[in-house]
Design a protein that fits this description.
The protein is α+β, with helices and mostly antiparallel strands and about 325 residues long. Helix content is about 20%, strand content about 35%. The chain has seven helices and twelve strands. The chain has helices at about 15-25, 60-65, 100-110, 235-250, 265-275, 280-290, 315-320, and strands at about 35-45, 70-80, 85-90, 90-95, 120-125, 135-145, 160-175, 180-195, 200-215, 215-225, 295-300, 310-315. The strands form two sheets. Strands 1, 2, 3, 4, 5, 6, 7, 8, 9 and 10 form a ten-stranded mixed beta sheet that branches. The protein has a two-stranded antiparallel ribbon with strand order 11-12. It is globular. It starts with 16 loop residues before the first helix and ends with a helix.
């Protein structure tokens, strides 16, 4: 027999008088309490800035090519201490009665005007000394938007907001593996470049230490050097980037949140390549994503090439 959800009743928890008396005398201020914040790694696939000729005419060679798009991340330039004039991820402190997810949604909307982006937590950063203001625990969120559709806003603690092209290089330093233990160290070089600020480049070198005990993984990060980035945000940016790459390499559905509603298969493949940092074989790629897209009746023309069919998400494949 099937039971309807509205027929299921669950008794509410009722506190005993003894428990109520305990809570009435409980002093939460007797324990040190951290401040809680939400920081967002906002990624987008965006077209490179166009460089026109002196007569303001499009270069013929570029006209015959599809516009080059790259993975970018949104950063803000802090207008107040600490780290005044340094660049940071958008974010803020939780308000009274607000969940961390609600904080992230509010901050994202304030910074970008986007209220319906892909947004999910991917890690928590709570190490001592990560913020000179005190004990601050940051819940880090991965956010994906179509950055060419929305214009970033400037908030109260950020007088500039800019998109930075992100590039990451990795190098394995050491590897020690035994039967039940392993120690692997890598260094990551992070390069963030903004065309809108005379190609300003922010850099950081971060060491990743992975240890395995009985096949269980523990990962630690250490910022070796950093230029222009506030707090420990170089580490958060790297972790967000690696998480994005990991999900794109699995089923890849996360990449669709970087796309407009309709897109060509070439645009979708280039988005995957931008996230993964490597070229993909056309036949293999289209076979992998074939079930996730539906062909529309529309085509895109111009840009010096033959018309291309436009596709959209196959929502039935996404929501199973």
């Amino acid at each position: 027999m099937m039971i309807r959800q509205d027929e299921i009743s669950m008794d509410k928890y009722i506190m005993s008088e003894e428990e109520q008396a305990y809570l009435a005398g409980y002093d939460i201020s007797a324990f040190d309490r951290p401040s809680v914040a939400a920081d967002m790694a906002v990624f987008s696939i965006m077209e490179e800035k166009k460089h026109n000729d002196p007569e303001n005419k499009r270069n013929i060679d570029n006209y015959r090519k599809d516009p080059l798009k790259q993975l970018k991340i949104l950063l803000i330039k802090r207008a107040s201490f600490p780290y005044k004039n340094a660049w940071a991820l958008p974010g803020g402190f939780c308000r009274m009665g607000e969940s961390v997810l609600e904080t992230a949604r509010r901050e994202l909307c304030e910074e970008t005007g986007v209220a319906d982006a892909y947004l999910r937590p991917f890690d928590i950063f709570s190490e001592d000394g990560r913020d000179p203001r005190g004990w601050i625990i940051s819940h880090a969120f991965l956010a994906l938007i179509n950055g060419e559709k929305y214009r970033v806003h400037e908030g109260t603690d950020a007088w500039e907001a800019r998109w930075f092209q992100i590039e990451v290089e990795s190098n394995e330093v050491s590897r020690q593996i035994s039967n039940e233990q392993a120690q692997i160290e890598r260094t990551y070089s992070l390069h963030l470049t903004c065309e809108d600020t005379n190609n300003l480049c922010l850099t950081a070198t971060i060491k990743q230490h992975k240890s395995y005990e009985q096949y269980h993984e523990t990962v630690k990060y250490e910022i070796l050097d950093c230029s222009g980035l506030a707090f420990d945000h170089a580490r958060i940016i790297l972790c967000a980037y690696l998480e994005l790459q990991k999900e794109a390499g699995n089923d890849g559905t996360i990449v669709f949140d970087l796309m407009p509603e309709r897109f060509t298969l070439t645009e979708l493949q280039r988005a995957f390549e931008s996230v993964l940092g490597k070229p993909l074989l056309v036949a293999n790629f289209r076979r992998k994503i074939g079930d996730y897209v539906l062909e529309t009746d529309d085509i895109v023309e111009g840009a010096g090439h033959r018309p291309a069919k436009l596709y959209r998400r196959n929502v039935e494949r996404f929501y199973q």
